[in-house]
From TrEMBL:
SUPFAM superfamilies: GroES-like, NAD(P)-binding Rossmann-fold domains. The lineage of its organism: Eukaryota, Fungi, Dikarya, Basidiomycota, Agaricomycotina. Keywords: Metal-binding, NAD, Oxidoreductase, Zinc. One of its GO terms (cellular component) is cytoplasm. GO terms for molecular function: alcohol dehydrogenase (NAD+) activity; zinc ion binding. CDD domains: CAD3. Residues 22-357 form the Enoyl reductase (ER) domain. Its EC number is 1.1.1.1. This is alcohol dehydrogenase. PANTHER family: ALCOHOL DEHYDROGENASE 1-RELATED.
Length: 360
């Protein structure tokens, strides 16, 4: 069924990065028309898109993975399905509110896909990295991996949940921390981190927020962090974090959401014996070292956690849409044309919470 409820324009606006110079420019582009969609593809009218630090890594090309050239970034898109490719096997309908997340598509038949580990699929397509993402008014995405946005949820509230929210929610699950346990969150004032503070609270965890500056301190404390440590002011971060826990043994888990290597440096030193450090932030070239003797004797765990699967995305959205819920993204809405300035502010650590682009 190739159908469309509204006139699709031939041209629209989006933000594109050329590999050659890494500069992001807002340009007009040709919109894929409904008749040209392949089976399994959908055209989404993107109303809002969150800006993730991953988009900045993609623009700077500082990861050991190659991005598409002339790349339209963005993987926290929230909008409406306006057309679906013929012969698509889906229960999505034109008009449905959907989210575009980092994992744009996966083969659905390899061992990883069969186990719900779709982000490990060797054929995975990544929104705003290997395929164009949500920094455009009309985006082609894939019916199998679009997330349905719960009824009544505002699209701008939903957008940051599609990467930041699902990622920290899954990372918290990976940490195996239980209600009443302490969790440290380096990067707590950023996009992922401030949502991590909130999902952690929802799970009954006690949060030690680590970041810098008065604005992020205020944000983290207002969101329920019990302890705050400024990584630029505190001289002995390991002792300060351990001291913040009642018995001084350190947090049961750490969810490292910092985009700089320094956030990782001490995590294995302050984690409680038997505790788990969950690596989430992706600072280019960072290496985590752990002295084998103490790693063994203290039974430390270090696990990587990469976005989440379709069910994680669904759960993260549902939890962020609960009446009187504890999870609410703190964001500032800005126009698409601000993206170059947003990248500069993000690089210098000025942004507290998330920034959401308004595409229309
Ligand atoms: P952000 O810029 O909004 O937040 C990062 C925060 O880290 C900032 O508030 C900064 O002040 C803080 N920080 C920097 N150094 C620190 C330190 N030494 N200790 C404590 N805090 C420190 O970025 P974001 O959008 O939240 O993304 C964070 C990272 O997570 C990026 O590297 C991004 O690519 C990565 N990411 C990973 C996944 C995944 O699946 N694993 C998903 C999304 C994003
Ligand atoms: Zn992201
Ligand atoms: Zn697969």
């Amino acid at each position: 069924m190739s159908n469309s409820s509204e006139q699709i324009p031939k041209r629209a606006r989006g933000a594109f990065v050329q590999q050659a110079d890494s500069n992001v420019k807002v340009e007009e582009y040709d919109v894929v028309q409904p008749k040209d969609l392949k089976p399994g593809e959908a055209l989404v009218k993107v109303m809002y898109s969150g800006v993730c630090h991953t988009d900045l890594h993609a623009a700077k090309q500082d990861w050991p993975l190659e991005a598409k050239d002339h790349l339209c970034g963005g993987h926290e898109g929230a909008g409406y399905v306006v057309a679906i490719g013929e012969h698509s096997n889906t229960n999505l309908k034109v008009g449905d509110a959907v989210g575009i997340k980092w994992l744009a598509d996966a083969c659905m038949h390899c061992e990883f896909c069969r186990q719900g580990l779709e982000s490990l699929c060797p054929e995975a397509k990544l929104s705003g990295f290997t395929v164009d993402g949500s920094f455009q008014q009309y985006a082609v995405s894939f019916v199998n991996h679009l997330s349905k946005i719960p009824d009544g949820m505002k699209l701008d509230d939903a957008a940051p949940i599609l990467c930041a929210g699902v990622t920290v929610y899954k990372a918290l699950k990976q940490s195996n921390a239980k209600a009443g346990n302490w969790v440290a969150v380096p990067g707590a004032g950023g996009g992922l981190g401030h949502l991590c503070v909130q999902y952690a609270n929802l799970m009954g965890l006690r949060v030690i927020a680590i970041d810098t500056g008065a604005e992020k301190k205020k944000l983290c404390e207002s969101l329920g962090a019990e302890a705050w440590i400024d990584f630029k002011e505190e001289k002995d971060i390991v002792s300060a974090i351990k001291k913040a826990t009642d018995d001084g043994f350190g947090p049961h888990a750490a969810i490292v959401t910092s985009a700089s290597p320094s956030g990782y440096e001490q995590a294995l030193d302050y984690i409680r014996p038997g505790g788990t450090v969950v690596a989430v932030g992706l600072p280019a070239g960072a290496v985590v070292k752990s002295e084998v003797f103490w790693h063994v004797v203290y039974e430390r765990k270090l696990v990587g956690s990469y976005v989440g699967n379709r069910q994680d995305a669904h759960e993260a959205l549902v939890l962020a849409n609960m009446k009187n819920g504890k999870v609410k993204c703190h964001y500032v809405t800005r126009p698409l044309d601000d993206l170059p300035a947003i990248y500069e502010e993000m690089a210098s650590g000025k942004l507290a919470g998330r920034t959401v682009l308004k595409l229309f």
